[in-house]
Amino acid sequence: MDDSPSPPKVFGNHVIKQIVQHMLAEDMLLNFDDYQVIRVVFRTLGGSWSQLAQGDIVHLELLKKVVTAWGQMPGREKESDRLI
After folding, report:
1. Could you tell me if 38 and 70 are in contact, meaning their C-beta atoms sit under 8 angstroms apart?
2. Which pLDDT band, with edges at 50, 70 and 90, does 58 fall under?
3. CB of 28 closer than 8 Å to CB of 76
4. Euclidean distance between CA atoms 17 and 72, whole angstroms
5. 48 C-beta neighbours (distance < 10 Å), count
6. Pairwise CA distance, residues 32 & 51, whole Å
7. This model's pTM is above 0.90
8. Per-residue pLDDT reduced to its tens digit, 19-57
9. Is 28 exposed, middle or buried (0-12, 13-18, 19+ CB in 10 A)?
10. Is residue 23 within 8 Å of 30, Cβ to Cβ?
């Protein structure tokens, strides 16, 4: 059985990671559940991964808002926080 993630999830995770690194912090820690929550909230709010892949700025702005809200939640960790 092939347990590799499907292409939409791989694309979504890649975009989420890029936005987190560029908008919040390069060393912000994301685990599997974080990706899943961000993807579900994005879709629930009407976001479309296919539209995002086509460059739709409305969907990009929506995803940026979701990621920013996730990043402002208490308990977010950075890799640099673990080194101390």
Report:
1. yes
2. very high
3. yes
4. 15
5. 14
6. 23
7. no
8. 998 888 887 888 889 999 999 999 999 999 999 999 999
9. buried
10. no
Q: Which tokens belong to 81?
A: 């926080």
3-class SS string, the chain: CCCCCCHHHHHHHHHHHHHHHHHHCCCECCCHHHHHHHHHHHHHCCCCHHHHHCCCHHHHHHHHHHHHHHHCCCCCCEHHHHHC
Distance CA 73, CA 58 (A): 23
Compute CA 41 distance to the chain's CA centroid, rounded to the nearest angstrom.
Answer: 10
- CA pair distance 33, 58, nearest whole angstrom: 25
pLDDT digits (tens, 9 = 90+) for 68-80: 999 888 877 776 6
